[in-house]
Amino acid sequence: MMYSIISRRKFGSQSAAALALPALTLAPAASAQPSESKRSLHVVCVGAHPDDPESGCGGTLARYAEKGHRVTIIYLTRGEAGIRGKSHEEAAAIRTGEAEAACKILGARPVFAGQIDGDTEVNPRRTQAFVALVLAQRPDLLLTHWPIDTHPDHQAASFLAIRAGLASRGRVPLYFFEVDYGYQTMGFQPTDYVDITAVRAKKKAALFAHRSQDGEAIYREHHEIMESFRGRESGVAAAEAFVSLPRNDVKRGLPGLD
Fold this sequence. Notes:
Elements: E1 4-7, E2 24-25, H1 34-37, E3 42-47, H2 52-66, E4 70-77, H3 88-106, E5 109-115, H4 124-136, E6 141-145, H5 152-167, E7 174-177, E8 192-195, H6 200-208, H7 215-234, E9 239-244
Parallel strand pairs: 3-4, 3-6, 4-5, 6-7
Antiparallel strand pairs: 1-2, 1-8, 7-9, 8-9
Helix pairs in contact: 2-3, 2-6, 3-6, 4-5
């Protein structure tokens, strides 16, 4: 199955026909250079808590892994405050295990950044440490939370990932994903879509691995609806949406698409 990034369709109120920009693909195109289309990438996703990356871009990560690219998920916290009635230590152990199980399903490697759920910090010391952690992975692509979000931990994860992207001096493109649009993620206007139809079941399984968070209900009540809506926007059955971070001195899309 071809892995495709579908540019946003803009539906004009004056026209009955949709205007679709050309599709971008990770699969080798007739005009693509073999060395570029077959280059192995390292995709690094930064999420605030276990289940955030799986919710926001689990299908995209699964697609990358299926194409043979390396995928790493950096969890800013271990979800210490995420299980009522459990101590931070107990919750962290449970949710770490769930994140590891989800990563195994997606074909990703988990890394934990060591901050605390509900008490994340953005300061020079934390920023320097996080930037060093991300750049040590030598990423070709960064994915993270959209920064305008009601959850402070999501904001922190996004800001720290932005700092890491900037520290790469434009080498690493950065794309933002949405989590629970309209309730947590705010003001999100996609620039790009990823068709996840073929890996929808794998994404669901990764979310369901987060039993302590009732991943099945989260998917049913939120992300299944979002995937279908984004799919309808982009002309497929199910999609995940992204916003790219443009730089004036760098003009590039997701690596390996040309």
